[in-house]
Specification:
The protein is of the alpha/beta class. The chain has 3 domains: about 5-245, 4-Layer Sandwich (Glutamine Phosphoribosylpyrophosphate, subunit 1, domain 1), CATH 3.60.20.10; about 255-445, Glucose-6-phosphate isomerase like protein, domain 1 (Rossmann fold, 3-Layer(aba) Sandwich); about 450-625, 3-Layer(aba) Sandwich (Rossmann fold), CATH 3.40.50. Helix 13 (about 430-485) packs parallel to helix 16 (about 605-625). The structure holds 5-amino-5-deoxy-1-O-phosphono-D-mannitol.
């Protein structure tokens, strides 16, 4: 989905651009590039297939880094055109005086490109983005300013974009705009920045201005000027960003993912402390009045990927703690199925980034239908937050690893908190016994961060065993592969299947889905999550000694049914890892491959604790298979295209 970054100030731009890009790499890492106006105001571009560190190494090796105090940078997630040097950004116009970086998709680029070619423009890439460079070139000739040229250029383009432009004829100035792709301005002392996300500017400044759709910003080292789509000047003061740069560093952990896994108990603890009050749970930022919430008759949760899994858990949470019925949709499907959403509906959008294009489209659809729209987001100032009626922040801090961990459990914590708020304060139970039950559950919720810390403390001690078990799995799998290839082709049966199956029931069925997604994302091994009761309806056909089956078998009303499923898998030689409640000795007598013990909680809160071993299984398997844990192939953290 690409990361864009720009610097204008008094310092050497290249190291700042490279650092900024490395912070944005979670958004895409197929290729990286920079454009700098050097000290004689000549535009110099360096770009390369691969990651930012490869671009940096090449600048080092060839000693050809340009020197100047203004520049643009881009890290790409390919949509149009293969990841290679020529498709890497920045893109230049024909005169090579204008450089453009773009995040998003120009949907009508084919017709624009044909028209520009007919006018004599020469294209050098297969990207949609390059049309913007040529459009700015064309309109600059007419208008004489980059700002006016960019305005006319984007008026021709259909789609989503955040664009930054520099021009040799306007040295010392960056011009940028956006529609449906994120863009912030970082305001420093004698230096200013543009970036896709605040995490890229934190080491320079914590003062940021979010750019709204259609606005154009022009910045030099000392000021920024914003104007609206109608051309009028917009005055917007910077907002102070709460995140700090340490949160965006690895702090001694081997990977961001591991660091983020370890941050979870502290984040959940903080969230609970922030919101707990005598009457239940309160949110400073919610903005939606209690009286409006009291009109709600049905709830629809809409999200993508991991956030969708949090939403699935949220259905169980809300239906347990409130009188409301809840449906859950993938954002990418929601608006195509004529959802029965109206003024009586509360639509909850869950998004770590707050920029996911499908979730944003679902939000707009829900608003159109009159629903009250609440966003659960992590990134403050994101588009989804700004367009929703109300917001609940997950306060998880910057999540850098592409595979979401802490944002997921923080989303769950937000959903529990919201459910307590609705269940106790908006729809207070008439029956005092029920009220007391809810307060008992709230008291238990407060203890969950402790249970999460306890699990992680034991994991720290046992860490070498996690590695050893994954190595053993790898060895077994490779042995069966060897056996297969040693068999004469005519006699071979099915090839061994390195497949993970995750089984859970009730509120931990979504946990199973999330466990499988984590593994797929970072270990590239096929994995599926199933409701354990569904196993007999098909997936059991996959069981033999190869697939690794993870069974969530913690204490719960469905525990015994889960044990029956375990027996069924065992009877078919399945390699089982059971996640069990600490102290359960009975399950240990079953002689399974592995047991992972988690502290005892009631079933309602178990997804928060179970998330930890599921994340760690994915982490250790990916590590054993030597995969790039923080930046898995083909993925981007923020999916700003539909
Ligand atoms: O920023 P969002 O929460 O809206 O992102 C949704 C998904 O793209 C995201 O959860 C994705 O599935 C992650 N890579 C999961 O690890």
């Amino acid at each position: 989905m690409c990361g864009i970054f720009g610097y204008v100030g008094q310092k050497d731009a290249v190291p700042i651009l490279l650092k900024g890009l490395s912070r944005l790499e979670y958004r895409g890492y197929d290729s990286a590039g920079i454009a700098v106006l050097d000290n004689s105001a000549h535009l110099i571009v360096r770009k390369k297939k691969g990651k930012v560190k490869e671009l940096a190494a090449s600048l080092n090796q060839h000693r050809n880094a340009p020197h100047g105090t203004i520049g643009l940078g881009h890290t790409r997630w390919a949509t149009h055109g293969a990841p290679n040097d020529s498709n890497a950004h920045p893109h230049l116009d024909c005169s090579e005086k204008i450089a453009v970086i773009h995040n998003g998709i120009i949907e009508n680029y084919v017709e624009l490109k044909e028209a520009l070619k007919a006018e004599g423009h020469q294209f050098r890439s297969n990207t949609d983005s390059e049309v913007l460079a040529h459009l700015v070139e064309k309109f600059y000739k007419k208008t004489g300013t980059v700002k006016e040229a960019l305005k006319l250029a984007v008026a021709k383009a259909r789609g989503s974009y955040a664009v930054g432009v520099i021009h040799e004829d306007e040295p010392g100035r960056i011009t940028a705009t956006r529609v449906d792709s994120p863009l912030v301005v970082g305001v420093g002392k004698h230096e200013n920045f543009i970036a896709s996300d605040v995490s890229a500017i934190l080491e320079h400044t914590r003062e940021a201005v979010a750019i709204e759709n259609g606005e154009i910003v022009v910045l030099d080292g000392d000021s920024y000027q914003l104007s609206g789509a109608n051309g009028r000047v917009v005055k917007r003061a910077p907002r102070h960003v709460q995140w700090n740069v340490e949160e965006a560093e690895k702090q001694g952990y081997a990977h961001f993912m591991l660091k983020e896994i370890f941050e979870q108990p502290g984040i959940i603890e903080g969230l609970i402390q922030k919101r707990l009050c005598k009457t239940g749970m309160r949110f400073e930022e919610l903005k939606i009045k209690k009286s409006r919430l009291a009109q709600v008759k049905n709830v629809h949760i809409v999200a993508c990927g991991t956030s969708y899994h949090a939403g699935l858990v949220g259905k169980y949470i809300l239906e347990t703690l409130t009188p409301l019925t809840v449906s859950v949709d993938n954002s990418s499907e929601f608006r195509y199925r004529d959802p029965k959403v109206d003024r009586s509906s509360l639509v909850i959008l869950i998004s770590q980034s707050g920029e996911t294009a499908d979730t944003l489209a679902a939000l707009r659809e829900a608003k159109k239908r009159g629903a009250v729209v609440l966003a659960i987001v992590n990134v403050l100032g994101s588009t989804i937050e700004r367009e929703a009626d109300g917001v609940i922040y997950t306060y998880a801090g910057p999540e850098i690893a592409v595979a979401s961990t802490k944002a997921y459990t923080a989303q769950l914590a937000a959903l529990y908190s919201l459910a307590f708020h609705l269940g106790l304060e908006v729809f207070p139970p008439k029956n005092p016994k029920r009220k007391a039950e809810l307060f008992d559950l709230l008291a238990e919720f407060k203890k969950i961060p402790g249970a999460m810390s306890e699990f992680l403390a034991e994991y720290r001690i046992d860490r070498a065993n996690w590695d050893a078990n994954c190595a053993e799995y790898n060895r077994r799998y490779h042995k069966s592969l060897e056996r297969y290839f040693k068999t004469a082709p005519a006699k071979r049966k099915r090839a061994p299947n390195a497949f993970f199956m995750y089984l859970g029931r009730n509120i931990n069925y979504p946990s199973a889905l999330e466990g499988a997604l984590k593994l797929k994302e970072i270990a590239y091994i096929s994995a599926e999550g199933y409701a354990a009761g569904e196993m007999k309806h098909g997936p059991i056909a996959l069981i033999d000694e190869n697939p690794w089956v993870v069974c969530i078998a913690v204490d719960s009303p469905t525990y015994e049914k889960m044990i029956s499923n375990i027996e069924e898998i065992k009877a078919r030689s399945g390699l089982i890892t059971a996640i069990v409640t600490k102290g359960n000795e009975a399950v240990k007598k079953l002689g399974l491959y592995l047991y992972i013990e988690v502290p005892k909680t009631s079933e309602l809160f178990s997804p928060l604790v179970i998330a930890l071993p599921l994340q760690l299984i994915a982490y250790h398997v990916a590590k054993e298979f030597k995969e790039e844990i923080d930046q898995p192939r083909n993925l981007a953290k923020s999916v700003t295209v539909e």
